[in-house]
Amino acid sequence: MRDGFSIQTLPFFTGALAFLPGCGATTSVDDTSTGETTATVTVTMTAADSSSSTDDPSTTLTTSPTTTDTETTSPETTDPTTETGDPGCSGGTCGTPADEGWFGPAIYARVAVDGELPSCTPEYPEPGPTLLEGFTDPGPAICDCTCEIMAAPNCNGGLRLATDNACNSWNYNLQVSAACQNIVQPNINSMRFYSYGYGVGTCDKEEIEEIAPIPWDATIRTCRLPDNALECGEGGVCLPAQPEGFESNWCMYKQGDAECPAGPYSNKMTFFSGAEDTRECTNCTCGTAGTNCAENAVDVFASPDCEGLPVATIAANACGAGGLSVAGTVGAEMACPVMTPPEATGTVLPMGDFTFCCTE
Q1: CB–CB of 217/134 below 8 Å?
Q2: Is the pTM of this model over 0.70?
Q3: What distance in Å separates the CA atoms of residue 336 and residue 163, rounded to the nearest whole number?
């Protein structure tokens, strides 16, 4: 007790205590060796009542909680570009908005051409274009043509058999066909062949045109942030994590072939909306089935049953030597020739290109 004042101290305090005299003074005590505050002491002092007992303290001492651990603790910070995300983006990443004139930020999924495309999610609700990746030239069309006979030439023919050598003394007519016929009349020394009618056969063409499909590598599904996406940082935009099935980067895109600007979106990729395919085959044409009936002929054989090689061939309206068997070409089915074969034309080129500028 001193000058009517009493002072109580806390036993745990070990540092130097400094306070200003007066009532209700609050003093912070710093440990200069560590630069940290170790205790805060509030001292209340009142004048002693002369009638009070000297054993009744008139000064009360209260303390606020103190930190006894001397290890320095600093608040955690999060880099908005790290994988841990930005707290202001609910775990997402604070990224850079798309440049003016570009769409995005967007994400994309790469699936097989005939695979199932993933759907856009609530985080990336705006569907972008569905595109194709990896164009390969499939080559020209494969063209071919065949001609088949539909009807034989409408021709008839006959032989006049003569006993002289000049086809004058004829006494027998023989209807000629493609089948072999034996001559049963004796003493036939000459024959005159007649072809009736000048019809021609008809042909039917079958055109073959094979257009190989374009072997694209993949189909691309794109989805982008909504227009009212959450902002972050200084002019940034919150980028939620990519949903399952989507690539682990972000992009901005525009139609056409463009250069990627400097910045986070600098990795260029090109996708296409399709291809312009002008491949085809030109028409083919067939000739006639056989020739004009006036050009038909009959083969004459020296032996029965058309054995061996013919000894003579008598053209239409001509006289020739006699024989023991004949076979004509009148009405015979003849091959239909391909007069104009088809040719492959055209090309196939990718079209509707889109430039995607993406993060690495």
Answers
A1: yes
A2: no
A3: 39
